[in-house]
Design goal:
The structure holds 2 protein chains of 2 kinds. Chain A is an all-beta fold. Chain A is 0% helix and 56% strand. Chain A has no helices and 11 strands. In chain A, strands 2, 4, 5, 6, 9, 10 and 11 form a 7-stranded mixed sheet that branches. In chain A, strands 1-3-8-7 form a 4-stranded antiparallel sheet, with no helix packed on it. The radius of gyration of chain A is 13 Å and the shape is globular. The relative contact order of chain A is 0.33. The mean pLDDT of chain A is 94. In chain B, 0% of the residues lie in helices and 55% in strands. In chain B, strands 2, 4, 5, 9, 10 and 11 form a 6-stranded mixed sheet that branches. Chain B has a 5-stranded antiparallel sheet with strand order 1-3-8-7-6, with no helix packed on it. The radius of gyration of chain B is 14 Å and the shape is globular. The mean pLDDT of chain B is 92. The chains are: A mainly beta, B mainly beta. Chains A and B meet through β5, β9 and β10 of A and β4, β5, β9 and β10 of B.
């Protein structure tokens, strides 16, 4: 069974730009969560999508948004990038009888 | 009080020793508990999960859960330098249909050769 995939793996943007990250979950998993990880803040929950609906949301500004498609693939968008948005963005797919969450390899975003 | 608490470490143990990592959680209704290992610059990797009180063993790893005391621990036997990483405790908390994963900030483990 293929794991969680994320694209792109690395991204460099400048302040004020916007970015879209993509995540494909494990086949059969309907839940996709997004996290931001920085050295100072650890793993911060952004939001979770389940069957195309946002089910849970963290404490991030409205510049961070997401969506999920009918095939469970998810995208995350960050508008008006700030230097502080530089981080590893992790997508996690959740499902199965144990409702276990598995992480993708992450997208490393650098904002200059 | 944080929902899931872990000692940030670093926890240093000599090679071959037992490493003991601890985690406490605040939501008594939490149903399932997970341990992830994260190497520097990489994404978290699931090590094991536990639902029931007691011990669960998988190779060199043992997860221990005590719901009455609201703690979960991870023991790593015969620690190896390759076990050096940050270990994240996660708790699946909430009500049916709204369960969400809550992560601790992680404990950094250093196994000294």
């Amino acid at each position: 069974k293929a794991g969680v995939t994320q694209t792109p793996r690395y991204l460099i943007k400048t302040r004020g730009q916007q970015v879209t990250l993509s995540c494909s979950p494990i086949s059969g998993h309907r839940s996709v969560s997004w996290y931001q990880q920085t050295p100072g803040q650890g793993l911060q929950f952004l939001f979770e999508y389940f069957s195309e609906t946002q089910r849970n949301k963290g404490n991030f500004p409205g510049r961070f948004s997401g969506r999920q498609f009918s095939n469970s693939r998810s995208e995350m968008n960050v508008s008006t990038l700030e230097l502080g948005d530089s981080a590893l963005y992790l997508c996690a797919s959740r499902g199965g009888p144990s409702d276990t969450q598995y992480f993708g390899p992450g997208t490393r975003l650098t904002v200059l | 009080q944080k929902e899931v608490e872990q000692n940030s470490g670093p926890l240093s143990v000599p090679e071959g020793a037992i490493a003991s990592l601890n985690c406490t959680y605040s939501d008594r209704g939490s149903q399932s508990f997970f341990w992830y290992r994260q190497y520097s610059g990489k994404s978290p990797e699931l090590i094991m999960f536990i639902y029931s009180n007691g011990d669960k063993e998988d190779g060199r790893f043992t997860a221990q859960l005590n719901k009455a005391s609201q703690y979960v621990s991870l023991l790593i036997r015969d620690s190896q330098p390759s076990d050096s990483a940050t270990y994240l405790c996660a708790v699946n908390s909430g009500t049916s249909g709204t369960y969400k994963y809550i992560f601790g900030t992680g404990t950094r483990l250093k196994v000294l050769a």
